[in-house]
């Protein structure tokens, strides 16, 4: 534990953790707001309740991340601020037109983001890693979204083609955003490429990372019954 805490005496490492928790926190807060809004599009009361439950989970994750930022002496609002424009821009460019598009967006976008943060979490201290991984739990998201999308496609196969095109658009936008964040924030770049004291995955590894994320997206699309 002492060795883990000693890493926070390094200003560059602390800044990287603040950025990581800040971008995650704003992502969870945005997801809460988005899911709360999308619940209005749900066709049934039971589906509205399921969406509300998902939203509540996202807010609980946000609250844990906010508390950890305060614990390490960071201002949560300042930590989230650098990522507001990028995340809001992504959501503006990928605004769903209906209930099913909203579900696919949540499943695809959240899945890609989770893969990205899991990769980064390999290079942080144990406590930060456990917190990050704890906010990426996927069981509830998978069961509810998969059931809804699969049923809709079975009832109307034409919807499958439309949603597959939508999923391809989403992955392009999400990967571009992830690459921009990794390139624009020196803190993330340092974590991923590594230092002499704390090796990372290197530049070649970063390329491989995005390939793995793309492969995982293809699997998720297949799970929903959609072609990637």
As a whole number of angstroms, the C-alpha radius of gyration is: 18 Å
Q: What is the helix content?
A: over 70%
- How do the SSEs run, as a string of H and E? HHHHHHHHHH
Low-confidence blocks of residues: none
Q: In DSSP terms, counting alpha (H) and pi (I) runs of 4 or more, how many helices?
A: 10
Shape: globular
Task: Report on the architecture of this protein.
Helix content is 81%, strand content 0%. It has 228 residues and is mainly alpha-helical. The N and C termini lie far apart (43 Å).
Indicate the topology.
Elements: H1 2-6, H2 11-38, H3 45-71, H4 76-93, H5 99-121, H6 126-134, H7 139-155, H8 158-184, H9 186-193, H10 202-224
Helix pairs in contact: 2-3, 2-4, 2-5, 2-9, 4-8, 5-7, 5-8, 5-10, 8-9, 8-10
Which properties best describe this structure?
228 residues; mainly alpha; 10 helices; 81% helix; 0% strand
In short:
The chain is mostly helical and 228 residues long. Helices cover 81% and strands 0% of the residues.
